[in-house]
Amino acid sequence: MFLPGKLQPVSVAQWFVNCKFPSRKVVVFIKPTCPYCRKTQEILSQLPFKPGLLESVNITVTNITNAIQDYLQQLTGWRTVPQVFIGKERLHRQTQ
């Protein structure tokens, strides 16, 4: 449980991101209005994942979206979404 005023947004962002990293699960951090996120979700949804092994995480449903993106940048060097992880390993971003 988080008590107001007890944790900084970065701490909450770290918890929010890190709790999504169970081993062997594919996690995609997204913003639903992002066309690249929608395309990534479309591609991943066509793959034969076992139930529960693919999770899309909408980072805009919190009031700490910027802190989440800052923490993703600390982890990966990229602040933008989508970001796809298998366990704690990020899939490398395609630039073209």
From TrEMBL:
GO terms for molecular function: transferase activity. Keywords: Disulfide bond, Electron transport, Redox-active center, Transferase, Transport. It comes from the Eukaryota. The keyword Transcription does not apply. InterPro entries: GLR_AS, GLRX1, Glutaredoxin, Glutaredoxin_subgr, Thioredoxin-like_sf. It holds the Pfam family Glutaredoxin. SUPFAM superfamilies: Thioredoxin-like. Residues 26-89 form the Glutaredoxin domain. Has a glutathione-disulfide oxidoreductase activity in the presence of NADPH and glutathione reductase. Reduces low molecular weight disulfides and proteins. Belongs to the glutaredoxin family. This is Glutaredoxin-1. The gene is LOC305806.
